Each structure stands twice: as structure tokens, then as C-alpha cells.
Amino acid sequence: MTASAEAPARNKTYFLSDLHLGATYMPDEREHEARVIEMLESFARDARTIYLLGDVLDYWYEYRTVVPRGHVRFFGELARLADSGIKIYWFIGNHDIWLFDYLRDELGVDVVDGYAVHEIGGKKFFLSHGDGLGDPSKAYGLMRKIFRNRFAQWLFAGIHPRWTIPFAYRWSRHSRMKRGDGIASYHGDENELPMIFARKYIAEHGEVDFFITGHRHVAVTRPLGEHGTFAILGDCFRQYTYGVFDGKKFELLHFFDGKNAK
Predict the structure, then answer these.
(1) What is the CATH number of domain 11-254?
(2) pLDDT score of 3 more than 60
(3) What's the pTM value of the predicted model, to 2 decimals?
(4) Could you tell me the residue ranges of all domains in the chain?
(5) What is the C-alpha separation between 228 and 81, in angstroms, rounded?
(6) Side by side, which strands form the sheet with 241-245?
């Protein structure tokens, strides 16, 4: 095989968040899924690892013997990537909380609940969906605890899906419409909750090179600490932004025009 014909080295790490597959407020859900798959297919040529940082699905409840309908092409692409040797991490978000073992066992992805600190290319990465980072709302904090409570999950599973699934999608749609359809805005370094959390974290645990999160649907990178970078990934249903680390630098990019997103 000649050098020009050799496959490219798999030396890049990709970061996506907030795909919200299945959301009823999407104008064309099939087209949205196809765009997400196009992104993943483009990463396959040089990806070593792909991080899905939460809210990949707009709603999911994992029953022991029944699989909710939808997302078949997306799941198939994840399985293909995992089978090809690409490591995939799926961080639980506030919309896809109820991931247990089905997707892990069937697709070969590692499911992470909470945040994780990984070393990538000799750099320290703090990774999280972001919904639990310093949110001051007591009601929201209580709701997160209930949703993660095993007994509450068992009770929820006993309600027939014909009631729970439509209710969950209506709730999501109402929440999205209440917040408006515009692109979210960054609240500033002094007011953005994930940034406040990040500063507190490095004060208590030491520097990180990259602090990457999702949830807020705004694409931004900011300096953090002495030499670190703070990034919110945007989303993959309106902006189609993603992060990529090549072992030396991290970039936040728009997929369909290739431009830098900050």
C-alpha cells in the first residue's frame, strides 16, 4: 500500500452535545438524524474517541425487555463506529437520564453519569453535560435527585409507556417553547454557572487544561485559570457545532461550514 493510499491516523478526539434526537419540535426529525449521522461519518476517518456530552436523545427510558421506537439509524452508526475501534463515551444529560445497560451492551458505548476527568493526549479534560454544575434552583436540584432515585425509577417504569412517553415529549416541547427558539447567549464569565463552577473546581483541585460542557446550547470558548480553556459546545440540532482536539489544540467548529465557533 502506498503512503497516499494509507488510512489517516486516528488521532483526534471529538465532542458533541445536545443533539435532542426525537424532539417533537424538530421541523424534520428524519433530516435531523441524517445530519447527525453525516457528522459522525465524517469523524470516522480520523477519530480515536468520541464524547457525547448529554441530551443526545430528547427523551429515553430504558425498559428491561422493551426498546422504545426510533433512532435506529443513529444507533446503528454508533455501533458501526464502536465496532471499528473508536471509543465512545455517552454522558447522561437531563433529557436522557434513564440510560442503564441496553445501549452500553448493544452499542458498545461507555455510559457516564455525572462528570469525569480524563487525560487525552497528555492533557487534563474535565467533561460533563453541565446541568448539575452549580445550578442554584432548589426545585431543579430536587427534581434531579428524584429522577436518579432507583425507587422512583422503578415506580415510573410501572406506568404504561402510552402515557409516559407522550407526556415526556410534551414537557420537553413546552420547556423549549417557553425558553424561546433563539440561539442562547453567554451570560458572561462572572454570571455563567458552568464557568463559576469551573473556577471553583480548579481552585480546589488544581488546573485543568480543558473544561468542556454542554447543556446551555451556546457555543463559546474562554480562557480558564493560568493556561486552561473553558468551552460550551453549543448544540447539534440548530447550530451543529462540535469540539475537536488533535493532540495539540482544541477547536470549536460549525460542521456544515467548517468555520470556527466561539
Answers:
(1) 3.60.21.10
(2) no
(3) 0.90
(4) 11-254
(5) 30
(6) 110-112, 87-91, 47-53, 12-16, 241-245, 250-254
